[in-house]
Design goal:
Number of helices: 9
Radius of gyration: 17 Å
Number of strands: 0
Helix content: 55-70%
Shape: globular
Structural class: mainly alpha
Strand content: under 5%
Number of domains: 2
Order of helices and strands: HHHHHHHHH
Length: 195
């Protein structure tokens, strides 16, 4: 069996980050410069975080996510309907974090299509254990960090509307504008929706 490229597991900082994404994308359109936009957010504490370290960490995470998007996608984050903003952010996250992309394709969609709508902790644990065989770096993650990864992933799934508060999987259908953007950028990522 061929060992695959290691997963990027740095998704524990905060979920979809919808407000922060809108602020950063908007500031970028005002300045047309990521560095100035980032500096303005820090100087004016636009995220209203208690520490500069937290602000810088989130800006760095968002810029990494945004690197997978084009200007049309960024514009949808700023001025789209809330569900469009959420769907574009989900698209960026799934591109940055292949673990999440694989989880949606191999667990969420599978369960949804066979009519098993409840997502359980066991589903995450079984998927994680299976992926450890292909991605040995997952073995190095502590139990505490693994629990946090599960919490954040479930939170993201709720924020994008794919899970309800009882952890039941729901249909998420991308809007026409979101479909167009994903088709233009990376059509294989249409698999991130339960439609």
């Amino acid at each position: 069996m061929q060992v695959k490229t290691d997963y990027n597991m740095s998704f524990t900082s905060g979920g979809l980050l919808e407000n922060e994404s809108r602020i950063l994308a908007n500031e970028y359109f005002q300045t047309k410069d990521w560095k100035i936009a980032s500096q303005n957010i820090q100087n004016d504490n636009m995220f209203q975080y208690r520490t500069m370290v937290a602000t810088k960490r989130i800006i760095q995470e968002l810029k990494a996510r945004f690197s997978y998007l084009n200007e049309d996608a960024l514009q949808l984050i700023v001025s789209g309907f809330p569900n469009e903003t959420q769907q574009i952010l989900w698209f960026a996250i799934c591109q940055k974090h292949k673990f999440i992309f694989d989880f949606v394709r191999e667990v969420i969609k599978e369960k949804y299509f066979i009519g098993q709508f409840e997502l359980e902790n066991y589903d995450f644990d079984a998927f994680y254990n299976k992926k450890m065989l292909e991605h040995p770096s997952l073995e190095k993650i502590t139990d505490g960090s693994r629990y946090k990864l599960k919490q954040v992933l479930f939170k993201m799934l709720r924020e994008v509307g794919m899970l309800n508060n009882q952890n039941f999987i729901q249909a998420v259908i991308p809007t026409q504008r979101v479909l167009q953007i994903i088709n233009n950028l990376a059509p294989q990522y249409l698999a991130i929706f339960t439609n």
